[in-house]
Amino acid sequence: MNLHLLRVFAAVVEHDGFSRAAEALFVSQSAVSKALRELEHQLDLPLIDRSGGRGVRLTESGQALYRHARGIFALERAALEEVRERVGLRRGGLRIGASTTVAAYWLAEAFARHAARHPQLDSALVVGNTGEVAEALIDCRIDAGFVEGPPHDERILATRWRDEPLQAVVAAASTLGAQRRASARQLAAQRWLVREAGSGTREVAQSLLATRGIVPARTLEIGGNEAIARAVAAGDGVAILPAAVVADLIAVGRLRALALPPGPALQRPLYRLELANRPRSPALAAFLAAMERRET
């Protein structure tokens, strides 16, 4: 059904006549008559009783159609109003996905400040590993993601956001901890604690080790950077972790920073993820602008 024709029909009913409907729509009376005839032709039903009398009298079919037309145009007005409210950040939602460490050390405060400034928004910070964040983005369950490594998916636009320093650590009380520096052979013989598959931390750590010729003979998978840091502090192996995660344990003497053989800088890029063809919502645009202002 042509909504323009339906709008003309509703105007005829609401203004009780063709001439007044034409004035309201800024068209000629003949255009109104033509539109109404075309609508009746499309539906193959008479909508107006033309047997005579003053004013517009609807047939039974016309009455039913007008009830639906009122609902349709009421929804249209509500949709337009909601869009205007969203533009003004008066309503809507913001869902940000982030990997565990990024959420805890880089996003939590900024997100909390934004939510406090816009309490009318339905805001949520969703935490998962890089693979889970990418999947949520593709499914449109989040508006944007912040992760350690760019996912290999052409549907996702990955923008380098910032660099995060990393640190190789070992238990301060361990033999290796007393050395402060170890050879590639010594390090390869250690048990390395690593994140689960799909984690950006794991992918970056493996790359940094490979460029130094270190291929761990043994690994232990643990699903969380903080858990890995505490396991290492307890004397269980070696790990490469974000410096922010291990800073407190180094400060209290439970972990010791370990110098690795020469190679690329121990850091990793963090990325902002967005769907390539999805426009930013007003809420997301405001959040990103606020983050940029604080970082510059």
Automatic annotation (TrEMBL):
Keywords: DNA-binding, Transcription, Transcription regulation
Full protein name: LysR family transcriptional regulator
PANTHER family: HTH-TYPE TRANSCRIPTIONAL REGULATOR (PTHR30126), HTH-TYPE TRANSCRIPTIONAL REGULATOR CYSL (PTHR30126:SF39)
Annotated family: Belongs to the LysR transcriptional regulatory family.
InterPro entries: LysR_HTH_N, LysR_subst-bd, WH-like_DNA-bd_sf, WH_DNA-bd_sf
Source species: Pseudoxanthomonas winnipegensis
Transmembrane segments: none
Keyword Protease: no
Signal peptide residues on this chain, from the entry's feature table: none
Domain HTH lysR-type stretches: 1-59
Gene3D superfamilies linked: 3.40.190.290, Winged helix-like DNA-binding domain superfamily/Winged helix DNA-binding domain (1.10.10.10)
Keyword Transcription regulation among record annotations: yes
GO MF annotation: an example: transcription cis-regulatory region binding
